[in-house]
Amino acid sequence: MPNEGSYEAAQRKSDEVHADLSKHPENYTMLTGDRPTGRLHLGHYFGTLVDRVRLQNMGIHTNIVIADYQVITDRDTTEHIRDNVYNMVVDYLACGIDPSKTMIFTHSAIPELNQLMLPFLSLVTEAEMERNPTVKAEQQASGHALTGLLLTYPVHQACDILFCKGNIVPVGRDQLPHIEITDKIARRFNERYAPVFPEPVGLLTSTPLMPGLDGRKMSKSYGNAISLSMTAEETARLIKKSRSDSERTITFDPENRPEISGLLSTAAICTGRDATEIADEIGDGGAGQLKRYVTEVVNDYFAPIRARREEIAQDMDYVANVIHEGNQQARQIASATLEQVREAMGMTY
Ligand code: TRP
Question: Full-prediction pTM beyond 0.85?
Answer without folding.
Answer: yes
